[in-house]
Design a protein that fits this description.
The chain has 87 residues and is mostly helical. It contains three helices and no strands. The radius of gyration is 20 Å and the shape is elongated.
Length: 87
């Protein structure tokens, strides 16, 4: 069970740097997919699909960064609650 927990921690985004790397990878995949849409559907339809794929990355990236901010605030709140009161 300990090994599974350690492997599971590899898939948790812990810092903004990791989030930016993941968002960059998503953007590369989205632009690649969008380029194939432009090739498959020339014209306005292809451009709309291209914009949809890149727009999805913007929304996902914002959600990832927002979740990191909320998780950090929750950890700080928990740390303050567990702190012993000063006399």
């Amino acid at each position: 069970m300990q090994v599974l927990r350690k492997i599971g921690r590899l898939f948790v985004i812990k810092s903004n740097w990791e989030a930016y790397l993941i968002i960059y990878a998503l953007a590369l995949g989205a632009t690649s997919r969008g380029a194939s849409y432009l090739h498959e559907y020339p014209g306005t339809g292809g451009w709309l699909l291209f914009l949809a794929t890149t727009g999805a990355v913007f929304m996902a990236g914002a959600k990832i960064l927002d979740c990191l901010k909320h998780e950090k605030a929750a950890r700080l709140a928990t740390a303050q609650e567990t702190r012993l009161p000063q006399d």
